Amino acid sequence: MSKLIITGGQPLHGKIKVSGAKNASLAILCGALLAQDEVVLDNIPDISDVRILLEIMGTMGVKVRWLGEESLSLKSPDRIIEEAPYDLVKQLRASNLLLGPMLTRYGKASVSLPGGCNIGVRPMDLHFKGLMGLGAEMNLERGTIQGKTGRLTGARVYLDFPSVGATENIMMAACLADGQTIIENAAKEPEIVDLANFLNALGAKVRGAGTDLIKIEGMTHLKGGRYTVIPDRIEAGTFMVAAAATRGEVLLENVIPRHLEPLTAKLREANIEVEVSEDTILVNATDVQTKSIDIKTMPYPGFPTDMQSQMMSFLATVSGTSIIVENIFENRFRVADELKCMGANIKVEGRMSVIEGVPSLQGAKVKASDLRAGAALVIAGLMANGDTELSNVHYIDRGYTNLEQKLTSLGALIRRA
Ligand SMILES: CC(=O)N[C@H]1[C@@H](OP(=O)(O)OP(=O)(O)OC[C@H]2O[C@@H](n3ccc(=O)[nH]c3=O)[C@H](O)[C@@H]2O)O[C@H](CO)[C@@H](O)[C@@H]1O
Ligand SMILES: C=C(OP(=O)(O)O)C(=O)O
């Protein structure tokens, strides 16, 4: 098991190019199952979640070919092996996004309950509600989701919560259903819009993505096409917070600043300078008097839960009292215990944490409990005095392309051991 060794105290300086979005790529890769012809995707991040999903799709009969570091070609088969392999599916949450495409294109799906990070209870009831609303027969048998159907029929589906995954699964299933589907209280995340744009590039008719009402006209088939995935707003955000936390200055290239507005607003509230252009963001924290802030995680365009842990590390040394309320995933405060080992003063009470800023953190042996907790502990290690030894690095590899190389190019002292 590899570890990251981080020697703290170096402000980050320089520029980096942000990679393609993990969460958009995973949904779009699953969406490629809907196309009859070849699909070529650009700006795909080289992360373990993508590699594992491609392995799963390969075992199901999809022909996958990398065309370069960030581009690949996919050709789905006419008949699929409908059983997604258990040990691979268990490794990532996004394997649940195979359900909608498999059911609507092939009429059958067998996918074990997905794995991923342990960030809280992650039920599938809304995915079931939507797919059953379109006419699929869904069952859970000994931990495996079994679905079957003839051609799905368009329907009106109200989501009790704007779930990202459920919106994506229903949207993909509806693309080949008979008639119109309307998703009410749909998720509005940028990755939903990216998936809709991709599906439309294949000939689908998805309207309203990015609002809470999505309308899909079902087609008999989708063709192939070429599509470029959006940049990863969470990777970009992680580097923005790392720049702020180390009191450095970092220019991010290949970003869509609008997607980062909730984070930009909060960093500015904390007195960090953030300059935005059409596709770059400059974070400058070299000469600032930081200020404590409060954060509440919410569905987009609220503050993203996937940026909450990284902000906790940053706020650990911001003088005054900051409060974070986590409204999406209840286990996302586990990182607080690790930060406390590094000298942070954090109290957790249910969904709320209270952070009293301390003058500095000290390096320690710490463990990532999930992907973003891992990123948060890397940031804490960069801020701390002395060495930090971070284990469970495989979580970080799920979602960050060349993290050590990118940080090293910004002057960080970080290596894998
Ligand atoms: C691969 C991917 O895109 N992952 C993202 C996706 O996860 P994911 O799609 O799993 O997240 P959801 O939006 O579905 O989950 C949000 C909330 O809805 C609840 N819920 C969800 C589904 C359901 O059927 N029933 C239900 O109650 C969950 O328990 C959670 O409290 O959106 C999350 C919220 O922005 C992000 O943190 C993840 O990075
Ligand atoms: C929670 C995350 O991902 P997943 O839904 O794939 O576990 C994340 O990206 O922070």
TrEMBL record:
Q: Name one GO biological process term.
A: regulation of cell shape
Q: In which pathway does it act?
A: Cell wall biogenesis; peptidoglycan biosynthesis
Give EC number(s), comma-separated.
Answer: 2.5.1.7
* A GO molecular function held by the record: UDP-N-acetylglucosamine 1-carboxyvinyltransferase activity
Q: Where in the cell is it found?
A: Cytoplasm
Q: Which UniProt keywords apply?
A: Cell cycle, Cell division, Cell shape, Cell wall biogenesis/degradation, Cytoplasm, Peptidoglycan synthesis, Pyruvate, Transferase
Q: Where does phosphoenolpyruvate bind?
A: 22-23
Q: Where is the signal peptide?
A: none
List residues, modification 2-(S-cysteinyl)pyruvic acid O-phosphothioketal: 117
Which superkingdom, per the lineage? Bacteria
Reactions mediated catalytically: phosphoenolpyruvate + UDP-N-acetyl-alpha-D-glucosamine = UDP-N-acetyl-3-O-(1-carboxyvinyl)-alpha-D-glucosamine + phosphate
Q: Which InterPro entries match?
A: Enolpyruvate_Tfrase_dom (IPR001986), Enolpyruvate_Tfrase_sf (IPR036968), MurA_subfamily (IPR050068), RNA3'P_cycl/enolpyr_Trfase_a/b (IPR013792), UDP_GlcNAc_COvinyl_MurA (IPR005750)
Keyword Transferase tagged? yes
Q: Which GO terms describe its cellular component?
A: cytoplasm
Cytoplasm among keywords:
yes
Q: Name one Pfam family in it.
A: EPSP_synthase
Instruction: Tell me the ranges covered by the Enolpyruvate transferase domain, including all copies.
Output: 7-407
| Annotated active site | 117 (proton donor)
Q: Which family does it belong to?
A: Belongs to the EPSP synthase family. MurA subfamily.
What is the designated name of this protein?
UDP-N-acetylglucosamine 1-carboxyvinyltransferase
